[in-house]
C-alpha cells in the first residue's frame, strides 16, 4: 500500500520546524535572562563598593568635623585622599535642618543664582533620599557628646546607573534587530512562495491549453458527423473536455490577478455541490442551508468552486465516506458573507489545529497536504477574506468558516 511518490516525512518536517522555533525562542530567553543576571551581578558589586566608599567618605567628614586640633596632617591627607578623590558618586551634605551645605559630582544647570541653586539641591536631596537612606555624621564636643548632626545624601554614580540599564537597552536593540530581520525574511519568503505558486499555476494552465484546444477541435469534428453526434462517446468526451477546461481555468486564475465579480453565493455553492454530489460516495449527503435575503459577494467563481470542492473532499475523507455535510450561508450584521462547512467526521486533534493549513501537512497515506493551503490562499490572498476552523470535536465533526466581504444585492428585479 506504500505510495512510492509520497515522502512519508511531510508531517515530521512541519513538526520539527515548530520544534526548532521553540528551541530558538527558549535559547533567546536564556541568553537574555543570562545577560541581565550577569550584569545585575556586576552592578550589585559596584553598588556595594560605592556604598563602602560613601561610608568611608562619611567617616572622614566626621573625623574632620570632630578633630579639634589646630592643624593635623593626617586629617588633611584623609580629606585629600577620600573626599576630594571621589570623582564619581554624587553627594550632598546637608545641615540638620536639611539645608544643603556642600555638594560634589553634581551637574548644576548653568545660570542658576544662589537661591535657585539651593532649591535645585534640595530637590536633588529628595531624589537621593528615595534611592538610599542618608548617612548621619555626628558632631561631638570634646567630652564626646553629640551636639549636632549632618546628613550625607548620595546616589548611584552615572557609571552604575548606566550599567543597570545597559542590558535592557542592549537586549531591546537586539530584539528590534531580530524582529526586523525576521519580518524582512518572512516577507521575502512569502514573495518567493508567491512567485512559485503563480509560476507553477501559469505554466500548468499554459501546458494544458494546447492539447485542450486540439481536443476541442476533435470534438467539433466528431459532432459534425451526423452518425457520431449523438453517440455516448461524444457526450462523455464533451464532459471530460468541460472538466479539463474548468481545471485550466482554475490554474490560470491562480496564476493571474483573478477578476472578482458579484455573485449569488448560494447559487454558486449549489451548482458546485450538485456537481460534487455525483462524484462522491452516495452515502454522503450534502445539505445546503440558506438564511435571509440574497447573499452576494465579490468572488472569482472558478476559484471559489475549488475552495468548496476541497473542503467537501476533506470532509468526505474525514467521514470515511459515510455522513452528512451541512453548508450554511448567511450574511452577518456587519455585511460580511459567512459560509460554514460542517461535517460529521473524525474531527481534528487540538495539537494539529494550527498546522493543518501549512503546506505539506497531511495525515493521509495518499495526501499531499496542499488542499487547505490552496483554500487559505484563495480565500485570504485572492478574496481578502478569512478562513478558520470554527469548531472541531473528535469523533463528532469539524466546521470550517469562510468570511467574505459582502456586496450589495444585485437583484435585477428590485433595482430595475
Ligand atoms: N474536515 C476535516 N476533518 C478532519 N480533518 C481534516 C479536515 N480537513 C482537513 N483535515 C486535516 O487536515 C489535513 C490537511 O488537509 P489538506 O491540506 O486538504 O491535505 P490532504 O487532504 O492532502 O491531506 C488532512 O490530512 C487532515 O488531517
Ligand atoms: Mg485535501
Describe the structure.
It is a single chain. With about 425 residues, the chain is α+β, with helices and mostly antiparallel strands. Among the domains are: about 25-155; about 260-410, Histidine kinase-like ATPase, C-terminal domain (Heat Shock Protein 90). About 55% of the residues lie in helices and about 20% in strands. The chain has 9 helices and 11 strands. It has helices at about 10-65, 75-85, 115-130, 160-225, 230-255, 265-275, 300-320, 370-380, 410-415, and strands at about 90-95, 100-105, 135-140, 145-155, 260-265, 285-290, 295-300, 325-330, 335-345, 385-395, 395-405. Strands 6-8-9-11-10 form a 5-stranded mixed β-sheet, with helices on one face. Strands 2-1-4-3 form a 4-stranded antiparallel β-sheet. Strands 5-7 form a two-stranded antiparallel ribbon. The chain is rod-shaped and about 140 Å long. The two termini are about 60 Å apart. The model is unreliable at about 1-10 and about 410-415 (pLDDT under 50). Bound molecules: adenosine-5'-diphosphate and magnesium ion (MG). Magnesium ion binds near residues 310, 313, 314 and 371.
CATH class annotation of the domain at 260-410: Alpha Beta
Strand content: 15-25%
Numbering strands along the chain, what is their spatial order in the largest sheet? 6-8-9-11-10
User: How far do the termini sit from each other?
Assistant: 60 Å
Coarse morphology? rod-shaped
Helix content: 40-55%
From the 3D structure, determine the CATH topology of the domain at 260-410.
Answer: Heat Shock Protein 90
Concise summary:
By secondary structure, the protein is an alpha+beta fold. It is built from nine helices and eleven strands.
Amino acid at each position: 500500500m506504500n505510495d512510492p511518490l509520497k515522502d512519508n516525512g511531510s508531517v515530521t518536517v512541519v513538526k520539527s520546524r515548530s520544534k526548532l522555533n521553540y528551541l530558538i525562542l527558549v535559547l533567546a530567553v536564556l541568553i537574555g535572562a543570562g545577560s541581565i543576571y550577569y550584569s545585575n551581578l556586576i552592578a550589585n558589586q559596584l553598588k556595594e563598593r560605592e556604598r563602602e566608599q560613601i561610608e568611608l567618605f562619611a567617616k572622614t567628614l566626621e573625623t574632620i568635623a570632630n578633630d579639634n586640633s589646630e592643624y593635623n596632617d593626617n586629617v588633611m591627607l584623609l580629606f585629600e585622599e577620600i573626599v576630594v578623590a571621589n570623582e564619581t558618586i554624587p553627594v550632598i551634605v546637608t545641615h540638620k535642618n536639611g539645608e544643603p551645605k556642600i555638594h560634589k559630582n553634581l551637574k548644576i544647570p548653568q545660570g542658576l543664582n544662589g537661591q535657585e541653586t539651593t532649591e535645585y539641591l534640595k530637590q536633588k536631596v529628595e531624589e537621593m533620599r528615595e534611592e538610599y537612606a542618608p548617612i548621619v555624621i555626628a558632631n561631638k564636643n570634646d567630652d564626646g557628646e553629640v551636639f549636632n548632626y549632618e546628613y550625607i545624601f548620595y546616589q548611584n554614580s552615572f557609571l552604575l546607573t548606566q550599567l543597570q540599564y545597559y542590558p535592557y537597552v542592549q537586549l531591546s536593540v537586539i530584539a528590534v534587530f531580530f524582529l526586523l530581520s525576521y519580518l524582512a525574511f518572512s516577507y521575502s519568503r512569502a514573495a518567493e512562495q508567491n512567485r512559485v505558486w503563480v509560476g507553477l499555476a501559469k505554466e500548468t494552465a499554459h501546458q494544458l491549453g494546447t492539447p485542450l484546444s486540439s481536443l476541442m477541435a476533435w470534438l467539433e469534428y466528431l459532432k459534425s458527423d451526423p452518425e457520431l453526434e449523438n453517440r455516448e462517446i461524444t457526450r462523455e468526451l464533451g464532459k471530460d473536455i468541460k472538466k479539463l477546461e474548468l481545471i485550466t481555468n482554475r490554474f490560470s486564475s491562480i496564476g493571474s490577478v483573478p477578476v472578482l465579480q458579484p455573485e449569488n453565493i448560494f447559487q454558486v455553492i449549489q451548482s458546485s455541490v450538485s456537481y460534487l454530489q455525483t462524484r462522491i460516495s452516495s452515502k454522503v449527503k450534502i445539505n445546503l442551508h440558506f438564511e435571509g435575503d440574497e447573499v452576494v459577494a465579490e468572488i472569482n467563481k472558478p476559484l471559489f468552486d475549488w475552495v468548496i470542492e476541497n473542503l467537501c473532499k476533506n470532509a468526505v475523507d474525514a467521514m470515511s465516506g459515510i455522513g452528512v455535510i451541512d453548508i450554511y450561508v448567511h450574511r452577518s450584521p456587519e455585511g460580511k458573507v459567512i459560509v460554514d462547512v460542517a461535517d460529521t467526521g473524525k474531527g481534528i486533534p487540538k495539537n494539529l489545529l494550527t498546522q493543518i493549513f501549512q503546506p505539506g501537512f497531511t495525515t493521509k497515506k495518499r495526501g499531499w497536504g496542499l488542499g487547505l493551503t490552496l483554500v487559505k490562499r484563495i480565500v485570504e490572498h485572492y478574496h481578502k477574506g478569512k478562513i478558520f476552523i470554527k469548531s472541531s470535536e473528535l469523533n463528532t465533526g469539524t466546521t470550517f468558516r469562510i468570511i467574505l466581504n459582502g456586496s450589495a444585492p444585485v437583484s435585477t428585479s428590485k433595482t430595475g
